[in-house]
Amino acid sequence: MPSDLINSGLALLGGTPIRRHPWPKWPRADEETANLVLEVLNSGRWAISGMYNGSKLYERRFAEAFAKFHGVQFGVPTANGSSALTIGLEALGVGYGKEVLVPGITWVACASSVLRVGGIPVLVDITPENLCMSVEDARNSITSETSAIMLVHLNCSIADLDAFLQLSSETGIPLIEDCSQAHGAIWSGKRVGSYGLISVFSLQDSKVITCGEGGIVLTDDPHLYDLLQQYRADGRRYSSNPKVNLIELEEVGSIQGCNYCLSEIQSAIALDRLSHLDEENRLRRNNAAMLKKKLSELGGISPLKQLPNAEEITYYQICFRLDRDEFAGLDIFTICRALTEELGVLIEPVDRPLNNNILYQPSKLSCLSDSYRDNWKIDPKSYTLPNATKAAQECLTLPHRVLLGDSHDIEDVVLAFEKVKKYANNLQFATKH
Ligand SMILES: *Cc1c(COP(=O)(O)O)cnc(C)c1O
User: Does the CA dihedral 178-179-181-185 come out positive or negative?
Assistant: First the structure.
């Protein structure tokens, strides 16, 4: 009986957890995925730098399918999302001393990739409603050195693409979309990732399409496509007439590249999983709608507010804002720990703001020069980010696995919130020092 479970006391304090059986599995693979992987294993070619054997690479098939899915012309797969960001920035000409606007809350790779290419991440505050970069703050952060705006769709939101496209066209500063948390989302009738001059995606284990580790960059610009290919394959690109038993790549060297290639095994997995993306997104969306409705009814828990043009958002994580007064004034970390214990799945606050994030340590970069070190804009503490700071104290996220089941799974999540809310007072007492 649900009420017994609720009355048993918090799992964090030794009570019975709400959830005692497994959540839907993630990442997912089926027989079709396994067949493709086996085909690669037997093909005699596991990498794009391997010998051409007359058949089309899975890397190219995935690139084409993913680009087509987005209505974009070109795709360049990469080893991970971070290298997708790195080559995206390099292709846009972001280099030493150039500034890139990065949202104050996002995964650290958004900022560290800018450092990696010698640029300066300029931290921009977010809008409280959807936790994405604020266009007003972005505008105020632009200088003559600003070379790109890195717009990240995160925490199940889509950033204000119309406003940022407008800003980009007014200023001539290119937009790079990071869609690592928004695969398949639709803004104004088009997929996110089809708006920026360049867009990047991570295919890491937790993302809604994954091959373990992986990434991809999209663009409609043939010149950028050429640069992206070279930046990710040591200055090489696909040859237009490959010979069997020889390398399929031709050496160009119009830039200094590096090896960020995605393997054939991973590409085959990504290609297979792409065919499930829309259907899995639909399931998550339906369950998310149910969860949002039920949690809103509990009081003190609200979903993020989306912009009208955010037609179909995706749920890499589902994010809620709490009124902590309704949870006995507990801090967000304690609430997350209590929920995690009830549900047996990691529930965590949104990413820590980049001006106060242990993973963001620009001054410890191995290749930092003195003039770079002296630039105050490198120092995260130079930024105040009040909205990001507040959001990090109020907002939490649940992983998309909890949205891949049915109404019983949603009911468990709701019960856990109800229970933590009901006993929040006990927790406050227990955690007092
Ligand atoms: C996951 C993620 C990345 C980094 O991707 P990796 O594949 O882990 O390198 C970049 N940006 C955002 C917004 C992400 O969520």
Answer: positive
Q: How far is the CA of 428 from the centre of ligand 1 (A)?
A: 35
CA distance 416 to 12: 12
What letters, b where the CB count within 10 A reaches 16 and e where it falls short, cover 298-329? Answer: eebbebbeebeebebbbbbbbbbbbebeebbe
Residue 193 Cα to ligand 1 middle (Å): 14
Q: For 226, phi and psi rounded to 5 degrees?
A: -60, -45
Judged against a pLDDT cut of 50, whether residue 387 lies above it is answered with yes
Q: What is the mean pLDDT of the chain?
A: 96
**Both tokens assigned to 181:** 């948390």
Report the amino acid identity of residue 371.
S
- Report the C-alpha gap between 210 and 16 in whole angstroms: 34
Of 106, 153, 180, 359, best ligand 1 pocket probe by most atoms within 8 Å of the beta carbon = 180
Please report, for residues 41, 157, 228, 265, 328, the alpha-carbon distance to residue 181 in angstroms, rounded to integers and kept in the order given. 30, 9, 22, 23, 32
User: What is the side-by-side order of every strand in the sheet holding 317-322?
Assistant: 301-303, 317-322, 395-399, 348-349
The gap between the terminal CA atoms of the chain, to the nearest Å, is 35
Q: How many whole angstroms from 244 Cα to the centroid of ligand 1?
A: 36
Whole-model pTM over 0.90: yes
Distance CA 128, CA 108 (A): 20
- pLDDT, one tens digit per residue, over 61-79 is 999 999 999 999 999 999 9
Q: How far apart, in whole angstroms, are the C-alpha atoms of residue 204 and residue 428?
A: 36
* Per-residue tokens: 309: 């043009």
User: pLDDT tier at 2 (50, 70, 90 boundaries)?
Assistant: low
Tokens found for residue 165: 């496209």
Ligand 1 pocket residues where CB is under 6 Å: 80-82, 106-107, 109-110, 152, 154, 178, 180-181, 202, 204, 215
Q: How far is CA 328 from the centre of its chain?
A: 32
